Amino acid sequence: MGGVLNVALYLSYVIIAVAFIDLILVIAKGRTYLSRREAFFTPLTWIGLIGAVSVILPESAFSKGLYTFCMNGGMIVWFVRMLFRKKPE
What we know:
Strand content: under 5%
Structural class: mainly alpha
Shape: elongated
Distance between the termini: 52 Å
């Protein structure tokens, strides 16, 4: 069962990465109200950081849980960051 779930988890990361790469390109080309530097701080950035921390941790239930949480956690951090972001002038 774990093998099937791992494949589904990795597949979901690939699918969502395509959408986030498109988001990065749209922001970088200036087609949004966000500044171009915001392209460096998309959910993909935070997913990568949380995933890297989970890989560095020793093998445990916590590190596995953190790894499976990294997609949701990355989006939560990004949305909270956007919530407190200054409005464009």
